[in-house]
């Protein structure tokens, strides 16, 4: 599965009893406990649950955004409890119920730490249920893993880097939020509306269908053609979550993956 980025419910069902690690990342920004509740009510058999706030982020500070990247050692300890191995790499499939919004964050984090054998479930848990496949309420036991991270430090940029490079010829800064939030017409989460000056808008939901299915690689390649000649691409959203859907789709499209500004608009506007 090393070069597979997306799998179908049927593929996943066929491979559930293998050495596959399945992770549920359902979450709701307005209702932070909803994802855990949904997992407890029924999940793909054998799946573990990782929470955006508790496992995929570190505590919020004055700056750094609403979902700072986690303490990496703490995160590695969590992965080891799921039985994650680096040699050979444990195959991982991640799903959510939000058109990859939260699953892609974990996909990016694992790739950042050097774990390439990871894919997303096309259509998320809704596609699994629609296919008539079973759910479980059983939480799998903790495991003993041996995950050895190899961080890709140049995949991440901070606000100082963005400030210094955003106006450099050949650099494209991408805002993954909705067009109205990008234009500053509406801001439902952060205290100030707007966007990073000079950024362009590529909305993360454009990359999937209304049913949560990822668009075809050739369609994604066409979507990203506007940055084909860029020397550097930096992607942000509100807090480094849905921007990862853009990054995931770039890889699926066969394009170079941009850099993540995880603080995003919530970090940028904290300095205004």
UniProtKB/TrEMBL annotation:
Rhodanese domain: residues covered: 16-137, 167-270
Domain of life: Bacteria
Keyword Zinc-finger: no
GO molecular function: thiosulfate-cyanide sulfurtransferase activity
InterPro entries, per database record: Rhodanese-like_dom, Rhodanese-like_dom_sf, Thiosulphate_STrfase_CS, TST/MPST-like
UniProtKB keywords: Repeat, Transferase
Coiled-coil region: none
Protein name: Sulfurtransferase
